[in-house]
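Reference record:
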Amino acid sequence: MTDFWTTVLEFSQTTATRVGKQLMQDFGQVQATRKADGSLVTRADKWADREIRDAITANFPSYGILTEEGEQVFSGKEWCWVVDPLDGTTNFTRGIPIWSISMGLLYEGVPVFGYVYLPPLNETFHGFWEGTSGLKTPMGAFRNHHPIHTSNDAPSQDRFFNLCSRSTRVMRTNFPCKIRMLGVASYNFLTVANGAVLGCLEATPKVWDIAASWPIVQAAGGVWVSLGSEPFPLSPKTDYSDRSFPSLIVSRKELLPTFTPFLS
């Protein structure tokens, strides 16, 4: 791993760990308010957002920053961090121990590195995805620094598929897997990456929900299908506060004919 990518990984780990330590103090102890788009936000979300933005500014001063609770217009800079300071706010406020801190790094508008930390589970995910960037990144996806890969299992009632609460319409009596709803978009995606589930469907994820998980899932062998407009590359000077990117993620392309009929 080059010095640059080592720096990126160590910065992500140090920042997420520090922010996560404080969030654990507020876990289940704060009240939420509703934003204009219907999602919830707490003072903990806003604090974490400021802390991560300040850390990025101090360590990567020339990079752009896009965050859920802060700047939501993509600057168009060559390098840009995209941050979800607390994914799973409803779980967080209710004391359910599944929520995450997500940090994705974009090059020319496309994610090439992602880091996701789940403080209650003491679980980390990170990955590098070169794609067509030509960056020669250190390819791979990792859970707690151990390599991970998507599942090769066939669909059955002994295997899982994740849904968000807005995508339950796909459930039918003949759905080929057991359904799970975790309440955290990033973790829904990452359970595909680590082979725990065969796929997932998210109906309304925003760019900060997907930026960190995108490179991890693909580095782990998963297939990401955009069901609306393609999220990446981001468009300069565009406001992403109200843009959703419905997505189907499966562990391998051979499963697409199994799951896509349920989307019609």
